[in-house]
Amino acid sequence: MSVYTHLTQQDIEQLLTRYDLGDLTSFKGIESGVENTNYFLDIDKKGHLQRYVLTLFEYLPADTLPFFINYTDELKSSGLPVPNPVRDKNGIALQSLKDKPTLIVQCFAGQHPDARNLSLDQCQQIGTMLAKIHIAGQGSALYQENQRGLSWLDDQQKRLSPLLDQDDASFMTEHWKNISNAIKAFDKLPKGLIHGDLFHNNVLFDQGKISAVIDFYQACNDWLIYDLAVTVNDWCLTNKLELDNQRSQALTEAYAQVRTFTEEEKKAWPLMLQLAAFRFWISRLITFVYPESQMDQEHQANLVRHFLDPNEFKEMLRLRTNDFASKLQ
Q1: Is the pLDDT of residue 110 over 50?
Q2: What positions does the domain Aminoglycoside phosphotransferase occupy (predicted)?
Q3: Does 9 fall in a domain?
Q4: In sequence order, which residues have a C-beta less than 8 Å from that of residue 67 and are 6 or more positions away?
């Protein structure tokens, strides 16, 4: 589900009075995304037109956002192409609009890659980039618990199972039991700061090269190899949702050239692919069953909703469970 809270030109112009960015010339809602409201803002400052992205956080509480601000600041300082928030006239990044936490970031040049035509070169580039993000994060003193981690998944599958048909409920319960039991054997997997949501629509390419990695609002401390599995499960798919061996190998080998896999990570790889599929199946199911559970009626009245099919990740989970050939070199 993409959630959009309606904003008027007056709403945005009033927010911009806190900044020294220039004059609003146009704005447009962005139809991608799952949990946040996003608008493109075109702003003119002394004849120079600059595009920004305005984000209103529909679910994340304000007290969690300083972590994301500080994290992207650190990544930017490490020379990585990430959008760190714009500060207002008083040096403050985090704002409030429509009673929701709000950030403005500069928009990067480039386009999202075509999901139907992801190349080996693009997969290699994102593998290299993700490894650099992980290495930078391992040196950080920042910490953020994974709000979509194992305990959350356990709670959500218990909440969802009674609301699904018998086949889906049994499928969910069985797979979660197997995943949660198997994962107990892996207690030495390297951890650090991860992106958590590195789908192809969170990356921009310009003239064939990555120009930006965006949307760090699922970032947290967790297993690095899990973050890689989330990425591979999106970037390396066939049209039947199986893993494309060439793209998967290109991505993971490019990653390993920057950060070497441990033996435990290699053993955990098939399980991490299953966990990543399960996590996003749960997330998409929630938007179907509880689409506005965290919003009051006034906010619900101003929403435009776009739902994503959860069955894609259910099928992906089934395939990954039966795939014993996936290996890391």
Answers
A1: yes
A2: 27-259
A3: yes
A4: 142, 143, 144, 219
